[in-house]
Amino acid sequence: MTYDYLIIGGGITGVTAAETIREQDSHARIAIVSEEPHLIYSRVLLPSYVKKRIPRDKVFLRNAEDFTKNRIDLHLQEKITRIDTAYREIFLQNGSTLGYEKLLIATGGKPHTWGKPEDADLVYQLQTIDDAERLLQMLDAVKQPIVVGDSFIGLEFLEILVLNGIAPALIVRGDHFFSHFVDPTGGKLIDDQFRHKGITPYYNDVIAAISAEGGLHIAETRTLKKIPFDIICVGVGIERSVDLVQGTEIKVGKRGILVNEFLETNVPGIFAGGDVAEYYNGISGTYRIEGNWTNAVLQGKRAGLNMTGVREPFRAVGSYSITSLGFHFTAIGDCSAHENTIVRIDPLHKRYERLFLREGILTGAFLINQFQDKPHIAQLIERQTNMAPWREQLKDLAFDIHTIPVVG
User: Fold this and answer.
1) Is the entire prediction scored with pTM above 0.90?
2) Three-point CA angle 22, 15, 46, nearest 5°
3) Cα→Cα distances 136→181, 351, 381, Å
4) For a tag site, which of 145, 215, 269, 291 has the least CB within 10 Å?
5) How far apart are CA 278 and CA 300, in angstroms?
6) Are the beta carbons of 21 and 304 closer than 8 angstroms?
7) Across the strands, what pairs with 226?
8) What number of CA atoms fall less than 13 Å from residue 38's CA on the CB side?
């Protein structure tokens, strides 16, 4: 079978692309191939499910009839072994092949491997619905958990445990939580909130070994601390699923599949989007990977349109927000320019902003309890605003950032 549009990956990027293609082309042959055994579900809703705020069925976003109605062939639990870019075919582990005219790779990523294989039964992650089910079934028996990592998933683990009446230990490599986003003053703000919620943080540390002592599991850290535990919840980021393109002509960048501003790879007719795509960002002039749900949706839509000939560059300021442990956190744009930042803080009211600049141009921001500033900051980033005229004023959080005009 040869499809006009073949999509590898049944997550939100792939499904959004397929549905967008169908809106543009009522006659096209469209298929999605996914290793997942489940229909598409919301990964961002998994923590809410584990927190028992929503039932399981609310995590799922489509049913089988939705794909039938849109005439999108869905191949679940199918592992792809090879892509042949010359003959425009993919090979499945079951021995069959599928042809394509245009291909979208939206394979996302998988959590980094953590720990030793013999300790796997003690380690919990939160990337799939099966991960969520496993944690939920175990939760009532947990007494002494450890959370590893200062990611957004790590933050979700902390809140899940605290809401369940459990006081977790936290181990992170950096000087403070979110050390890649906040300076030490922001780190103290978060640390104070963690301790208020009963969390015990250990900074500048990692688990070096796991042992048993007196019937308990013991995590021995690099700094020689011994922490008893029953489970370890790991939130240390994901590895992009690029193995499928290794050995093909498709270029891979530092972390993901390289695509231009139109989400096209270097091979004609092949696109990539979502977590796996290292795309050229026309706003910053750099190659970026955005690992968040909003970006995955937007890139899925843009890829679908570009594949059908409605050709426009993908241009968006990525952002991610989460409310956890009484704080609202928001990351916007590119927050990698640590050498040039402006910190705005009001410790009394637990408010914080850090603005990231490159040669004076605003590229990103991280906000704590300042969500109202997000839309305006995103516009300032998109317009590549030079913040030099307001640099001194911005150091005071009382200065209203909305008074800086959006021009261009």
Assistant:
1) yes
2) 155
3) 30, 33, 40
4) 215
5) 14
6) yes
7) 220
8) 16
Would you list the DSSP string of 258-304? EE-TTSB-SSTTEEE-GGGEEEEETTTTEEE---SHHHHHHHHHHHH
Residue-by-residue pLDDT tens, the chain, 408 positions: 999 999 999 999 999 999 999 999 999 999 999 999 999 999 999 999 999 999 999 999 999 999 999 999 999 999 999 999 999 999 999 999 999 999 999 999 988 889 899 999 999 999 999 999 999 999 999 999 999 999 999 999 999 999 999 999 999 999 999 999 999 999 999 999 999 999 999 999 999 999 988 778 999 999 999 999 999 999 988 889 999 999 999 999 999 999 999 999 999 999 999 999 999 998 888 899 988 899 999 999 999 999 999 999 999 998 999 999 999 999 999 998 778 999 999 999 999 999 999 999 999 999 999 999 999 999 999 999 999 999 999 999 999 999 999 986
98 DSSP β-pair partners: 90
β-strands 123-124, 231-234 pairing: parallel
CB 324 within 8 A of CB 330: no
Nearest CA-CA partner of 150 in 222, 226, 202, 197: 202
Helix or strand holding residue 221 (H, E): strand 216-221
Residue for token digits 């993901």?
Answer: 256
- The residues with which 357 forms a beta bridge, in sequence order, are 362
Q: Are 266 and 300 in contact (CB under 8 A)?
A: no
Give me the half-sphere count of Cα atoms (radius 13 Å) on the Cβ side of residue 141: 8
The strand pairing partners of 37, in sequence order, are none
Please report, for residues 114, 120, 289, 356, the alpha-carbon distance to residue 209 in angstroms, rounded to integers and kept in the order given: 12, 13, 32, 37
Instruction: Please enumerate, as own/partner, the contacts of 82-85 that have beta carbons within 8 Å and a separation of 24 or more.
Output: 82/244, 83/244, 83/245, 83/248, 83/250, 85/248, 85/249, 85/250, 85/267, 85/270
Burial tier of 37 (Cβ tally within 10 Å: 0-12, 13-18, 19+): exposed
